[in-house]
Design brief:
By secondary structure, this protein is an alpha/beta fold. The chain has 13 helices and 7 strands. A 5-stranded mixed beta sheet has the order 1-2-3-4-5, covered by helices on one side. Strands 6-7 form a two-stranded parallel sheet.
Length: 375
Amino acid sequence: MRALGGRRGFLDLFWKGTLLIEQKSAGRDLKPAKAQALEYFSGLKEDELPRYLLLSDFQTFELYDLDEGTETRFPLADLPRHVEAFGFVMGVQTRSFRDQDPANLRASALMQKLHDALRASGFGGHPLELFLVRLLFCLFADDTGIFPERGMFQAFLAERTRTDGGDTGPLLGKLFEVLNQPEDRRQTTLDADLALFPYVNGDLFAERLQLPDFDSGMRGLLLAACDFNWDAISPAIFGALFQGVMTPGERRAKGAHYTTEKNILKVIEPLFLDDLHTEFSRLKARRGSARERMLRAFHDRLAALKFFDPACGCGNFLVIAYRELGLWKSRFCVNYCHRISACSMSPISRGSMSISSSASRSRNFRRASPRSRCG
């Protein structure tokens, strides 16, 4: 095989796309063996590049998973304890799943501080839950292109509310009313700053809500949340917020222990996303007149998918499924799957925060900027 620099060499074993093995005599240093093996990569096609690299001097083994960036080293005597690392020989592949982004946890902590301050003042229950969901939507909208001018929500709060916080609640209430009104149904005398905000469809702002009385500290906490960069935050933050604002007793009573994004992906990828990927790849590779018809049928079926969560909690399963379908669309269905946003997401839960958050997120994802992950 041709190596880097044009010279030819010999591999001990090469399994295209899977494994390259380089062996040396007993006791030899394996560092040069690794460098030698990697030199052959320049002569391989993209689909031939191996995922695994195995080095051995017949006494010591070094197995590298180049996709995951992991390394397993062991002596020959310990091979039985590491045999699972070679599961790929039988077709078993190791998969990694994204964990909760630390930025999500920081954002959740900001909202939790505001929640705790409001509840300590006597504002709680359903009004507090719905109020936080509305604020969280506005924070997302301010940084992701749903609102027409980036930072307009933050500017409205900073410039139009008093520093003592006394008028923050009423002004937020008026803003929520405006967000629930189509532009052509608003009064012509509406405040000019408020008139800039768009109509938000769905029911998130429909309910008339008891509003909290802010003080300067609460206003400061809200402005601190506005300073955070929300366009890089996953919608899964609702899960952290949902669990964080409840006491341990409340969580036990309601069974409200939200599922992390990492564990959700462990379920939904093998449950349906992997099959969709395989089916689309097969259809895309077809030739002949039936290809277009079959792709359109696949796209129609994708749009008709229904997802049901009978124990919704904060809605993370539904919203992550929706987001991943959007990612899947952008990667594989650019020319065909235009109706993916029509798929149905159905939550069932007793908590007002969970229902309103999962519903509003599903309705409004497609309006976000390209950096948001759906639609």
